[in-house]
Structures are given as structure tokens and as C-alpha cells.
Amino acid sequence: MVRAAVLPAVGAPLEITEIDLPEPGPGQVRVRLAAAGVCHSDLSLSNGTMRVPVPAVLGHEGAGTVVAVGEGVTHVAPGAEVVLNWAPSCGSCHACSLGEVWLCANALNGAADIHARRSSDGSDLHPGLNVAAFAEETVVAASCVLPLPEGVPLTDAALLGCAVLTGYGAVHHSAQVGPGETVAVYGVGGVGLAALQSARIAGAGRIVAVDVSHEKEELARGAGATDYVVASETTAREIRGLTDKQGVDVAIECVGRASTIRTAWDSTRRGGRTTVVGIGGKDQQVTFNALEIFHWGRTLAGCVYGNSDPAKDLPVLAEHIRAGRLDLGALVTERIGLDGIPAAFENMLAGRGGRALVVF
């Protein structure tokens, strides 16, 4: 038996309970979690913005140590330190054939599997976004396990599984920020902080952080922001004022609200790029008129998982970490146990803090 955070139904409170995990079967790996990040996507699963089968063990951003492997698993062995990959690519769908593994049509097929059972009544549990990281241990498909590169602290490495890959990829893969370009990052949570650090790594000139909270300015500047704007109806105007009335070259939206996406678009220069990372609900409608699309010549792009290939990007991120350019610990504003996840959800809703990290 292991302790885990279970979502019994959409909109219901999380339950911290004991579950029974099976031994790893062929092509599976059992991992003892060192840590798991509390991501806004977990909140989106709990409130129904994103849909997966329930009841489910949530958590998709994690790292730990392999304790057992099933038949046919050769790329990791017991004792190996690993990062969990919640969206493994199948390698055979149309998106994968194009090299766009972040859009794999089969990446979340595992969410419908039976992952474990409640110890109390034997009822079936699903694995949330494939990896069920809100638990002391988990059993996952071998494709969901990536060896942790040397020189990366295991506990903080959990953040590589979503926040850092997403924030780094939004800057380097989707927006392709170049040296000297100006960047605005909307939302100073875990992904936003990773995007700020990544913009600094990319050599961006002016880096503007935008958030609703006055309290996050120090956090944002520590991650690389040169300027900080508290979100308001005049945000786009303020950002244009910081950039010779032109607007930034790139805006990275990490919130997922229609109003924020629209403001991010408005704050970019003519010909600028807006990358949307935040996951919004179907009710969040963004409107543009045909004339402004023509006149401004801007690009608006969605960004899934940072448009990243985790197997290729992890070694690159590890090199940045070893060189001191990327600080994983700076993303974490709270270290908690499983019991602290509901409060972490409330903090996200209230816009408080960066990343909460469940440490086992």
C-alpha cells in the first residue's frame, strides 16, 4: 500500500488515501517518487476544464527512483533516477511522423487504463495524466520514464517534467526568442518563472513580467525579469511605453484566460509573436477583427508541452542547470506533503506563489 491523492469525481475534493499498486508488468516501471510539482493542469483536471477518466490519482510532474521493472524494459534499471514524462509519444501517428511529438494523438491513451485500486474497497483508479505522481510510488509505462541526466538534484528534477519543459519550450521552440529581443511573460507561476529564466538564457534584452499580484515582483526579477507590471486594463499600453511605443517582440501567455491572451496580443509590436501556453476553458472566447489581423501582421500560436521533445530537451536543460544558467529551486515557493495539495490548489486560484513541490 502507498499513500496517494485521489480525485473521486470532477469537482470533488481530493482524498488522501491508501492505494494498492500492481507489480510492474511487461513494458512497465515502478518508481518511488522523490517529489511531484503541483501544476495548474492538475487543478484543471479536478474542476473539469480538462477531462480524464475518474476516479483518478492526479499528479503529472514528478521524479523519483526506479524500484522495479517489468519484462522487456532495458533503458532503466532498479536504482536509476528518472523524470516522469506524462505525454509519451507513440512514434507512429501523423503528428509523430512529422516530428511534432508534443502533438501525439496517442499520448494520453494510458489515462483510461486501470492504474491501481483503493485499499479500502478495491475500487478501480485511473492514472490521471498517465503517471499518477501524487503518490509515494507509481507504476507507469516504460515510455513515461526518462533517465535523469547527471548533476541534477532529484527532488527539484520533478519540475523538469512539466513546468520547465513547457516554459523553456515556449521560449525556445514556439516563440524562438533571439538575442536582444524584447519579451513579456504573462503569469508568474511555475511555468511563467521557467519562461522568464529561459528568456534570459536566450539572451533577450528587455524581459517584462506581468501578474495580478504585487507580491511576485521579487520572484519575477530573480528569474530574469528586467521590468514588472501589475496586470490592469492599461497593461498593453504600459508595455508599449517600455518599448519605445512599439510593443514587445514576443509575448508568452501562461494564464489561459481570454482577457490575458487578448492583452498579450495587444502588447506585441507589429509583426510580433504571441505564444499561448495557458490552458483555458471552452467558455474563454478570444475575438479579433479581420482588419486588425491584416494591419498588425502578428502571429498567435498555441503551445502544447512547450512544443518539446523531452528525450532531446532534458540533456539540454541539464547542461543549463549544471552551468548555473537555470535554477530549478528558484521556481519553488513552497515544499509540502500530500496533505498540502488542496491548499496549493487554493493558492493557485488566488494567484499566490510560484510552484508548490510535494516532497516525499
Give the tags:
single chain; 10 helices; 6-stranded parallel beta sheet; 7-stranded mixed beta sheet; alpha/beta; 360 residues
Explain what this protein looks like in three dimensions.
With 360 residues, the protein is an alpha/beta fold. It is built from ten helices and 18 strands. Strands 3, 5, 6, 9, 10, 17 and 18 form a seven-stranded mixed sheet that branches. A six-stranded parallel sheet has the order 13-12-11-14-15-16, sandwiched between helices. It has a five-stranded antiparallel sheet with strand order 4-1-2-7-8, with no helix packed on it. Strand 7 and strand 8 (124-125) form a beta hairpin. Helix 3 (163-174) packs across helix 4. The two termini are 15 Å apart. The model has no long low-confidence stretch (mean pLDDT 96).
N-to-C series of helices and strands: EEEHEEEHEEEEHEHEHEHEHEHEHEHE
Please state the CA-atom Rg, rounded to the nearest Å.
20 Å
Q: Report the helical percentage.
A: 25-40%
**Computed structural class:** alpha/beta
Strand segment tally: 18
Morphology call: globular
Q: What is the terminal-to-terminal distance?
A: 15 Å
- In round numbers, the mean pLDDT is 96
The number of helical segments is 10
> What composes the largest sheet?
7 strands, mixed
Low-confidence stretches: none
Strand content: 25-35%
